[in-house]
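Data deposition worksheet. Section B asks for the primary sequence of the deposited chain exactly as it was used as input, without tags or linkers unless they were present during the calculation. Section C holds the resulting structure in token form. Section D is free text for depositor observations; keep each observation to a single sentence. Incomplete worksheets are returned to the depositor.
Section A, Depositor: J.P.
Section B:
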Amino acid sequence: MADESLCVEDEVRDEDRAFLNEQLYRFNATATGVNDGQWLAVLARDGEGQIRAGLHGWTWGGAGYVDTLWVREDLRGNGLGTQLLAAAEAEAARRGCREMHLTTHSFQAPGFYWRQGYGLIGELPGWPGDTTRLFFRKALGGPAATPGGPRSNA
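Section C:
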């Protein structure tokens, strides 16, 4: 079926993204009967209100998901990422989540997630290029995952 109204865009408007997210969430909630989804953000701001580091994701159906975790380069290695992740995990647990999920790439910080108790549950080699996308999970409120060892950029 051809539709002349199709439009490929390289910039997605915030309201369009929000609309699509809401529609998919409604479908998922109806299909599963689970309607407890919430966005999750933990931000570290400076005195002017600028973000120095942050994390965003969501919680739904007993799991939390970290979509993005970023720390400004000059602040890395001082425990700020650990604090962000711990705060997100604590909030997810408060919301009734039993586990956290996230993805990273082999060139990013898989060693960081291993040290935080995340275990590798899947790999997508060759994306991008010669690197690998890594999928991690961590149980909340229970024993830490048994890591198989850091990969790179520890």
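Section D:
Residues 143-147, 149-154 have pLDDT under 50 and may be disordered.
Residues 58 and 93 are 12 Å apart (CA to CA).
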